[in-house]
Amino acid sequence: MTLVLGIESSCDETAAALVTDGREILAQAIASQEAEHAPYGGVVPEIAARAHAERLAPLIERVLSEAGKSLDDCDAIAATAGPGLIGGVMVGLVTAKALAMASGKPLMAVNHLEGHALSPRLADASLQYPYALLLVSGGHCQILRVEGVGKYQRHATTIDDALGEAFDKTAKILGLGYPGGPAVEKLARKGDPAAVPLPRPLMRSKEPHFSFAGLKSAVLRAHDTGEHADADIAASFQQAALDCILDRTSSALAAMQPVTALVVAGGVAANQTIRAGLQNLATENGLAFTAPPLPLCTDNAAMIAWAGVERMAAGFGPDPLDLKARPRWPLDPQAEPARGAGVKA
Ligand code: KG4
Ligand code: ZN
After folding, report:
1. Which spans in the chain are helix H?
2. Fewest CB atoms within 10 Å of the CB: 117, 136, 207, 224?
3. Confidence of residue 340 (pLDDT cuts 50, 70, 90)
4. Rounded distance, CA 270 to CA 49, Å?
5. Does the CB atom of residue 138 touch ligand 1 within 6 A?
6. Ligand 2 center to residue 244 CA distance, Å?
7. pLDDT of amino acid 341
8. Cα 239 to ligand 2 centre (Å)
9. Rounded CA separation 120/196 (Å)
10. Separation of 225 CA from ligand 2 center, angstroms?
11. Pocket test for ligand 1, best of 10, 34, 116, 137 (most atoms within 8 A of CB)
């Protein structure tokens, strides 16, 4: 049995987990920083880094003791080495390096996006490469052909905002607080998805990419008219976002066949309306559909430990103890920058 300790600290969740190559999560713990960042309506990097530094070591102790394991029992220590907020990433990576050095165990540096990309395989042993992946989180919105560990072909990305970001901004406009995705989803259940006319940016465009900035501005204008109920705005926004996703994913699928399945991962994959829409799209295309269980969608350390397991099995690593944290780290370095893309792409 291979046992990997995983560490995640790239945004506002501090997390540790112990995962085996038999897909067993022996223990996991997450400390969310929602309360710290809520007054600011978004993640404050400096506050995040300090919170990670205070919480990570006790979390690691907790998962080891819950599983009845010690560092000696681990075959590797995997940590997110980017992309993300650099202060937080450094806290996790430096902790992993110190543990690796003290225990003599190999360090596995994991790309956070690879953690999301492989998370569906932790939950679903039958999922085979190559699969089509819609990766939708607070910082990213991409469609990738996942061909194997470390082999990612990016078909589409956002030219402005990420999908989770659009949910968070909509939540802010509607006064729903931070983090916004789950709050928008909840309010949308009470609204009419056809009530507010909103744009579907880049829908049916020949370019494969996403755009959500115009949708967000339209939400703001609709709200400012004072003519619509908040629930109707939330439902109409979610419907517009879903229409964009289905349109973009549908045309990407045509370009990336053959694939074994359509898979969604990342924080926004927790959204039930989006999951249901993608499930239908997969069925229409004769494909299996996989979405990880909700706790594996949002940031967590089990997916980082699992990426460590997969990387070891594929012959990657160990990584050197002087490895640098990377604030930017694309999964597909060959991908052309999307035309018109801002700095976030
Ligand atoms: O993957 P994740 O936890 O962190 C990043 O790597 O960014 O994704 C967080 C994002 C946030 O923007 C959050 O609002 C969104 O995922 N999110 C959701 C839902 N749950 C989380 N968006 C829509 N519906 C949800 N249920
Ligand atoms: Zn993430």
Report:
1. 34-37, 45-67, 86-103, 112-123, 163-173, 181-188, 213-225, 230-256, 272-284, 294-297, 302-313
2. 224
3. low
4. 25
5. yes
6. 21
7. 56
8. 23
9. 34
10. 34
11. 137
Ligand at minimal distance from the CA of 141 is 1
Question: What is the structure's pLDDT at 41?
Answer: 81
Look-up of token digits 């919170």: 51
The per-residue DSSP string of 59-96 comes to HHHHHHHHHT--GGG-SEEEEEEESS-HHHHHHHHHHH
> Are 270 and 284 within 8 A, CB to CB?
no
pLDDT in tens, 279-334: 999 999 999 999 999 999 999 999 999 999 999 999 999 999 999 999 999 999 99
User: From the CA of 75, how far away is ligand 1's center (Å)?
Assistant: 31
Give the DSSP letter of residue 196.
S
Atom of ligand 1 nearest to the CA of 272: 26
CB atoms within 10 A of CB 276: 12
pLDDT in tens, 110-166: 999 999 999 999 999 999 999 999 999 999 999 999 999 999 999 999 999 999 999
Q: What is the dihedral of CA 214, 217, 221, 222, to 10 degrees?
A: 70
Q: Which amino acid is at 73?
A: D
Q: How far is the CA of 117 from the centre of ligand 2 (A)?
A: 10
Q: In the chain, pLDDT over 70 holds for what percent of residues?
A: 98
164 Cα–ligand 2 center, Å: 10
pLDDT in tens, 185-209: 999 999 999 999 999 999 999 989 9
Ligand with the closest atom to the CA of 294: 1
Ligand 1 and 179: CB distance under 6 A: yes
- 128: tokens are 């085979």
Ligand nearest, relative to CA of residue 267:
1
d(CA 148, CA 15): 25
